[in-house]
Hints:
The structure holds two protein chains of two kinds. Helices cover 31% and strands 17% of the residues of chain A. Chain A is of the alpha/beta class.
Amino acid sequence: MAGRTFAEKALARAAGMDDARAGDIVDVTPDLMLSHDNSAAISRIFQQTGAPRILHPERIAITLDHAAPAPTTRHAENHAEVRVWAQEHGITHLFEVGRGICHQVISEEGLVLPGETVLGADSHTTHAGWLGAFGAGVGRTEMAALWATGQLWMRVPEAIRIMLSGRLARGVTAKDLALYLLGILGANGALYRSVEFAGDGIAGLSLDARAVLPNMMAEAGAKNAYLPPDDAVFDYLTARRTRDYTPLYPDADASYAAEHHVDLTAIPPQIALPSRPDRVVPLSEALGQPVHQAFIGTCTNGRLEDLRAAAEVLQNQRVRCRLIVIPASAEVLRAAAREGIIDTLVGAGAAIGTPGCGPCMGNHMGVPAPDEVTISSGSRNFRGRMGTANAPVYLASPYVVAASAIEGRIADPRETIQ
Amino acid sequence: MRSEHRCWVYGDDVNTDVIFPGRYTYTLREPDEIAAHALEDLDPAFARAVQPGDVIVAGANWGCGSSREQAVTALKHAGIALIVAASFGRIYFRNCINQGLLPVTLPGLNTRLTTGDTLIWDRDAWTIRAAGESYAIPRLPVSVQAILDAGGLLPMLQQRFSQVMP
């Protein structure tokens, strides 16, 4: 009997079954159900279902992050509706404006653990794979169904294995690796697939770096992505976990639909050109392109290591174009303040925003003017993504974004940090 | 039942940000308001010219990107009867089913049609006829088809809860 992939094991577990195979359709009971500013819309759908009550309010997490603090009265009404709903229905895991981005917050709060399943009304729920959980995005109506019934059908995905070896060079980050992979896979290269990382290259990636990979595999169409949790993950969770857990690992003889090998040592900095996350070229091919705005933040690259990278580049420098820095969470912001990173960034001319999603999907806090060019550490650069249709967006690592802010042009950070 | 439909033809990797921009996602609520912005950043002519019964015929990975369900709502309430694509973004595919809009996976059809062409949908034969050929509509798993047959996930839940509640 062939072995099982992570996805097969995780969805069998979540469905309460002994076994599941790729292609099976199973009814999953997730350990966590995640939503955000869209919770008001979800609550309105829930109320139409006729369900008598929310089945597992303790398994729900809601963050106010996508347009927070509220930029308009209508956004504020939306938040107010979510607060009342959570209060009335005993949803205690409600995270207020400023606590941070949903995927980062549930990681910090230990609300999703290795081997568990989280379904989220957000496409970047794949993020949870960084600690060995199964995370997948669903729609609003599905989240309402989950609140009502605790269950949702899932097709067990085929898996792709990505073997990592070697170590990233200085100034090269997991973001460059994620972009490099998107360049190879393309926007639908992992469609309906579980992207399962393996290999001794993972041990050399920090926890902040690991989160970038499953997060961005959403841009290749992945259903979920997975990194095998190790002692570094278990240590992180020791003080945070809310319950016991059992990590899951794929069998050595599991079968994969495709396999890729990547030598981390050989990857140079990468950049995604407008307006596709998979339109990736080596950074060297985009150097010199003028930029009007630089943005460091998002669930992809707004963690402490990312702010630290920016500060390393911006130490004793001055930005030539506006730079917006938005930590992924309050915890990140506090740690960055303690380390003096915030002081360095503000000293260099950066504007610091409230932890949350910021301008990533065009709601507020850094919407570009028409024809302005942005370089962002986020994960999406689709036309109109940041709120303005004719405003090109490049995607790169925090190092590259910071170096570009200094020059007002796309620049190579390795010249600054060495 | 056979019906004739006018096609709107698009390419590969059309993402939900251009189908329904994120800048509207927490402020526009009503389906008609949402439909007025359908495909705004890809094809500004669409929302004004679309007619009830029109269909979308697209390339690979239609609806990739954000999970936002309004990217289906916008098209459904603009009158789109069917979405045919070489493949779908996985959340978009689910959102279609949940909103009672049949997603038809048919590789290559978008390259044989242009916007304005006619497609014939035979619901009984479970086929599509377009560009001079007939194509079988791939069957969905029984449990998934049941959601479509109920008219979407919300009607299905309403049935379920009306049965358990007195």
